[in-house]
Q: What sequence folds into this?
């Protein structure tokens, strides 16, 4: 298929629109590094000897929706058995950490809690200097306030008063966000600009029946409509990698491999962090797509292109 003509808020189930959406907001993303050789490999076992540390994206690498990708559980355990350190580095900001751990345990991955690093954690780390501010939060209230304890917040819904009262906005999870709520947020920021912090820079995430619109999608639309510049936390920005390196106790450089299904978040983020990258093409955003064309059009070149985890 072609690479698409434009982002379009209502059409992010199509890869061309997702790709075009990322390209349209490149000015808000970090600059790409020189890139890699795009060396082909069947799976991570073919390149594992070159790395000590594996940083794995979740959607499109470990799972699609609620199901594990075939062979992913076995691969993670094989890497550990070979003495590799395996961490999850994910933009899954919408879920409390405990919920993610329940999911990974149910799927059989067996990650330790400290080995799951999310953009939710990166966002919360950034809020340490924002004490006392009252936040309006884009998130599913049914998931509760776990990890958000200590913040003065209210979940944004259909009451305009909540948007007016907020002193800043946190875009964490968009599963129940609507166009009407987006319009309320746009109006509120036009009337009175306030800080907007984004806990998931993704425009879309692969699901069983297409791709969902993620907080990054709404944040960029918000910036276009209001001129308010969001502050992004998570891939491809450096802060989430800094958290991962804190877990490791050092900056691993090229002995670490970031594995993901997205050029504009996983591969670009790896270049920002100074680690190697592997692009997974058999699942997630690039499944069945013109991978070489996407790499050429974006100029974001991974070190490896692998079919599956």
A:
């Amino acid at each position: 298929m072609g690479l698409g003509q434009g982002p379009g808020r209502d059409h992010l189930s199509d890869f061309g629109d997702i790709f075009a959406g990322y390209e349209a907001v490149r000015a808000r993303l970090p600059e790409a590094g020189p890139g890699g050789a795009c060396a082909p490999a069947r799976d991570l076992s073919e390149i594992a000897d070159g790395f000590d540390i594996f940083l794995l994206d979740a959607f499109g690498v470990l799972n699609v929706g609620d199901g594990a990708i075939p062979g992913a559980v076995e691969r993670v355990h094989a890497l550990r058995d070979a003495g590799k350190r395996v961490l999850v580095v994910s933009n899954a900001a919408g879920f409390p950490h405990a919920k993610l751990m329940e999911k990974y345990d149910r799927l059989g991955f067996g990650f330790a809690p400290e080995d799951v690093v999310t953009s939710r954690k990166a966002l919360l780390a950034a809020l340490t200097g924002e004490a006392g501010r009252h936040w309006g939060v884009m998130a599913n209230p049914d998931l509760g306030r776990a990890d958000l304890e200590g913040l003065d917040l209210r979940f944004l819904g259909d009451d305009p008063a909540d948007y007016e009262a907020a002193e800043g906005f946190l875009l964490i999870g968009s599963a129940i966000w609507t166009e009407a709520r987006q319009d309320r947020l746009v109006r509120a920021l036009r009337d009175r600009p306030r800080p907007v912090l984004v806990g998931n820079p993704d425009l879309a995430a692969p699901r069983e029946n297409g791709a969902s619109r993620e907080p990054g999608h709404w944040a960029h639309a918000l910036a276009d409509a209001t001129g308010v510049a969001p502050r992004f936390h998570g891939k491809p920005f450096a802060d989430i990698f800094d958290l991962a390196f804190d877990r490791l106790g050092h900056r691993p450089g090229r002995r670490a491999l970031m594995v993901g299904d997205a050029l504009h978040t996983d591969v670009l983020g790896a270049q920002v962090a100074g680690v190697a990258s592997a692009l997974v093409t058999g699942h997630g955003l690039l499944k069945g797509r013109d991978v070489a064309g996407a790499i050429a059009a974006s100029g974001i070149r991974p070190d490896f292109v692998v079919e599956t985890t």
Notes: Residues 1-12 have pLDDT under 50 and may be disordered. The chain has two domains: 15-121+236-306, 129-232. The CA atoms of residues 240 and 246 lie 10 Å apart.
